[in-house]
Amino acid sequence: MLIFEEFIDFCERIFDASKDDESVYSKIYDLIYERYKQLDIKELELHNGAPEKIKKFMEYYSGLVRLTPERAKKRILNSFGMLQRLREEYLIPVFASDNSTVKNKKALSCSELKTEIKFVKGIGPKKAKLMNMLGIENVEDLLRYYPRAYEDRRRIVNISDIIGEEKVTVSGKIVAAKSTRTKSGMWILSASITDETGVLIVNWFNQNYLRNIITEDKSICLTGKVKYGKFAGWEMQSPDFEILEDSEIVQRIIFPVYRVTNGIHVSNIRKAVRNTVKYADCLDNGLPSALESKYELLPVSEAVKGIHFPKSDYHLKKCKTRLVYDEFFFFQLAALYARKITDKKNMGKAKIFKGTLSGELENSLPFKLTSAQKQACNSIREGLKSEYPLNVLLQGDVGSGKTIVALLGMLDSVEAGYQSTIMAPTSILAQQHFENVNNLVKGLNVKTELLISNIPEKDKKEIKARIKNGEVDIVIGTHAIIQDDVDFDNLGMAVIDEQHRFGVKQREKLINKGQKVDTVVMTATPIPRTLALSAYGDLDVVIIDELPPNRQSIKTVLISEKKSKELYDFIKSEIAMGHKAYIVYPLIEESEQMDLKDATSMYEFLKTGPFSGTGVGLLHGKMKAEEKDEIMQDFINGKYSLLVSTTVIEVGIDVPDATVMVIEHPERFGLAQLHQLRGRVGRSHRKSYCFLVTTDTSPESYGRLRYFSETENGFLLADYDLKTRGPGEFMGVRQHGVPNFNLGNIVEDIDILENARKDAKEILESDPGLERHEELKIYLYNNYKDKMSLIDIG
Ligand code: ADP
Ligand code: MG
User: Given the CA of residue 368, which atom of ligand 1 is nearest to it?
Assistant: First the structure.
């Protein structure tokens, strides 16, 4: 059987697929007639007037065969408009055409939105406490507590018609119900349901409170997956259900399913929402009506009602679109607005320079900048010259040459008379930058200093004094730079390397060491542009999407654990040539919960077994910073040729003679993270290798790793991860501070995200202070407190 909406969707697909193919015109009518006969009449009749319309629709197309191809085509093209009108007429509720929302709003007392949840009908103080735990304090929270899923009960199946192990909705009477306890102490509530065509056995586990709800003689509607039971016949386990009142017939509608907690049943929330949903008319966020009409968005009040009680899939989609748009729009607006305000405060000091210093450096480089690097340089230079502060997220794959781009900007700032600084997450990395920068600026009369915590106190004092009185042009260091006792004479530009290792607060702290500080934050974990935009709504994203020429590709090989001996032999042969190798494990120490190899035990094994006689080091995240530095230094110096490690080595360490990276249990890591690890080798002319040693042979895991082994582009890998594992799983997302959108999915809803960002930008360009958008502004201040509070920090 087919419901009305399915029929419309089906027709549309048929017309769309055949519109350009004359040879199938004669078959179209038969195809749709076949489906027409399958229509569930009872469901169709629920749509007042639809049966007649559909009949006419069928008649219109029955004559298709007799028409010339041109006229037939015309008629076929007409179908799209007709089907869309049917949707609009029958698949979304009637509303709003007469401004009913405004009228309703006047009749409602909108202060009810703030009514505490315990006063809502059907929710007592006890349940209210549990609701609080779900984040629901008042009526408005409840309305904004969107369903996590839906049960489509528009199709009701006879028990005798169940044909496979599928998810179905069944309606019937409870003919028996009993609760028993197993030996292991688990409660099982078992009920028999009949709809007069058959019997269905239903079980609930450890939900003993249901025994007073699921009782004999009641009518019930259930949705769940059926399977063929142990004792013959169909069974359902822990289905979602609704007890029907005596007089109630089954409502053939889409039911919302909510995330619940122990002691609260979905039906509790469903009832509470039903009792309060009229207050959705009071919800408004001031989104300009021009934007509503631009995308034909439903009013927010209607969208909230519909997200709880959608009339059709089509309706649900429209409601979601509106609410997702709002989420993205307000997030971006808040970020951009806050940025505008801070920018304005800091405005007024454009840097003036000719680019002589940076030009000298560029000319003395042993290589030519890639065009992507040049473009990035130009973006940064423009920003420095502008009277608005520069706020850039500089993204580029491992080895794309971000440092030089940042350094050229720093030299421009120095030429303009300002100090610059670069902050890195570890002292090794800071030292590396320091050496590189010193090499590059040799002969340019630019004074640099290294400021990290592990230098003698006396030297540190001296360095700080020199920074304070302006004798140092470029300060390179770690967290040591943002300590309270570090003062700059005239800080004008700050670069933060591997920015995901730092928090927003630390960024603020560094920026606050000067006035109107231009900032460039760099990340080598490429995150897709959309994600970057949504994560850093307040930053401009500049991407270096090209690697310098003549980069060697790193041979990436998937191998089985059984080949360990051959692998160790290969590593030994590399070490014999003076090269170095890493082996990375997912765990630091042995774990009882997980059957995985760990760095500590493997270190013991490798050092005394296969690699006895070779210098083997151990590095992991539980070690103190100094200890880690020392081990890294020993690896660089050659005391160790093999470094056994966890993912702590992931950040931009440069050991040019390292040529082998072995990753054990690679399926445990995100692709972006694997890419980072792989980027630790191949940093010189020497041929380099990455081995993924895997025991997981599932096709899914294999497919991912295979893709990784064939793909060298970090952005593609990040995209793949994002698409297959979702933003939540994406490596380091939490560190990246990507917001958790309630409904919006930055991958699936990317178009909406981009539109919303553009719209938010346009509004702020025409009305920077939001003076002409008072309602919007109020909504922002009430709902985006975090972002707005940044305004006051700046
Ligand atoms: P990342 O973007 O990973 O931080 P780096 O800035 O550390 O990369 O650059 C990696 C290496 O590439 C450095 O040794 C740097 O000198 C070199 N490099 C940078 N730009 C170029 C270029 N255009 N051509 C050749 N080598 C370059
Ligand atoms: Mg780097």
Answer: 23
Query: Probe ligand 1: pick from 404, 495, 546, 681, max atoms within 8 Å of CB?
Result: 404
Q: Which amino acid is at 570?
A: F
Residue 480 has pLDDT above 50, yes or no: yes
Question: What digits encode the pLDDT tens for the residues 363-379?
Answer: 999 899 999 999 999 99
- Chain position carrying tokens 């009409």: 293
Q: What is the pTM of this model?
A: 0.72
Residue 685: is it exposed, middle or buried by C-beta count within 10 angstroms (0-12/13-18/19+)? exposed
Nearest-Å Rg of the Cα atoms of the chain is 32
- One-letter amino acid identity for 776? L
Sequence-ordered list of residues with C-beta below 8 angstroms from that of 190, at least 6 positions apart, any chain: 177, 178, 179, 180, 201, 202, 203
**Chain Cα centroid distance, residue 241:** 32
pLDDT above 70: residue 789: no
User: What whole-number distance in Å separates Cα of residue 482 and Cα of residue 501?
Assistant: 14
Residue 96's region, left for phi above 0, alpha for psi from -120 to 50, else beta, is left
Could you give the CA distance from residue 682 to residue 661 in angstroms, rounded to a whole number?
A: 10
3-state helix, strand, coil in the chain (%, to 5): 50, 15, 35
The answer, yes or no, to whether any atom of ligand 1 lies below 6 A from the CB of 369, is: yes
591-610: pLDDT as tens digits: 777 778 889 999 999 999 99
Higher pLDDT, 707 or 790: 707
Share the mean pLDDT of the chain: 88
State the distance from the centre of ligand 1 to the C-alpha of 649, rounded, in angstroms: 19
Measure Cα distances from 57 to 40, 41, 63, 153 in Å. Answer: 17, 16, 11, 26
Going by the DSSP 8-state scheme, the letter that residue 211 receives in this structure is G
